[in-house]
Amino acid sequence: MQTFSIDIQRQEIRNRAHIQEYFVQDDWKLSDRVTLNLGARYTLNFPSTETNDQSAVFNLQTQQLDYLGQNGNPRSARQLHTLDFGPRVGVVARVTGKTIVSSGYGLVWIEQAGITTPFTTPAFPFLQTVSQRTLDNVTPAFALASGPSVTPIPLTPTAGLGQGVFAVDAGLGSGYVQQWNASLQRELNASTVLEVAYVGSHIVHVGIPDTNLNQLTVNQLARGPALLQRVPNPYFGIIPQSSSLGDPTIPIAQLMKPYPEYTTVSLYRNNVGTTAFNGLTIGLRQRFSRGLSYSISYTRSKLVDDASSVFDASILTGPIANYPVADSFNRSLERDYSTGDMPHVFVSSLVWDLPAGVSRAHRLPGVLGAIASDWTATMIVTLQSGTPVAVTQATNFNAFAGFGVQRPNLIADPTLPADQRTPNQWFNTAAFAVAPQFAIGSSSRNPVRGPSYRDVDLALIRRVPLQRGAALEARIEVFNLLNTPALGAPNAVLGAANFGTITTAGDPRVIQLALKCLF
Q: What predicted TM-score, i.e. pTM, was given to this entire model?
């Protein structure tokens, strides 16, 4: 056996966190036309702890582990922030008997980690990965007959030597969302309303993917091939030989890193990301009247962020090395259209009692009436823009220097005209060129967009009353009526054989017949 690794822990990890919130809110009717709503919420996001203090934080100054709840260290990795106030204000004004304007603003505090989870205490080395490997690629690590000879890493300040560790920005605050809106509603008739609304939001301290503090700078990377030269390892015999850093020689690049005795050094659940959303919606709604109701809505929006994904919320033995960030020291490279950005969204729904039937406009006689009466049609139409897609290259030539991903160089416009896009080539693949070693690719995070989404669903429903309040409901449902299966995202890894092609799709048209007895 050449390599072997296993995750081990002595006892269950039991993280605990609690939140306290206090609020006050009231409405003031300033006049018969204007109502003001004011409120405030106070949030205490208490830093999480582990029940038995099974947590340790890498100290960036001493370059060793500090065990929480021991040797004078606090039980939590973060600090409690006591100024998390969230104001809220809203106003509604009746301009005329048929026109209403409204606006509002609110600030909402979210989890201390920015999203997903409130837990901010690293589990290593109480949860750890131990390994055994061949030292020369000739002699096996062990024979299967005798098994591996791994032992748990002792719980010492140097337990993380030769592997990845988590530090924590103790003073980092909780995430929060600012939301604001303004709308105008106009009654066109007794059952129909036209609305124009603007909505905006800004999230601060949102969770982001892990990054690597133990990375060379771009200027250091530019030194080129000399970085790969192997020299005597000053930590040989100190770092365990099971680590890739435990060999007699080591690349110069490793010794130039800020923490040369470690592989990856990440700030645990480091919520420093931001997002910005702005959208304008025009909608027309009719309440159910004369057997018909409908809703039509179109939204034009823009969503920008520097982190369309977050850290792994599972309990990890250490940071990952292939994090999706081009340069841990330059967060501006991540600012781009979000992978959730859909600039155009059209949604329409309809419920229509067909005119034939009891208490309806027409009554059909005989067998035709028994079959065609009392049906209701419902339909939903959805049209959406394609979402951005991240492009990377198959080989990260700079992984040795601590870079998590390498994006290609962008040398032309990657967007093809609509009439040239096919599943075999969704975007201009010639617009990308492989970035060489020792360089950062020029492509942005999400330079292309995937396919748009089009869907029409139709249903015909009839309810036949039975005795004693029971009923029989028949349904004919057609999903994806126009048979336009949603295409999957194109392959976006430069160097892959199917780069730029789409190989997945959603369901085609599906017809479903159902009969239900209601009682």
A: 0.89
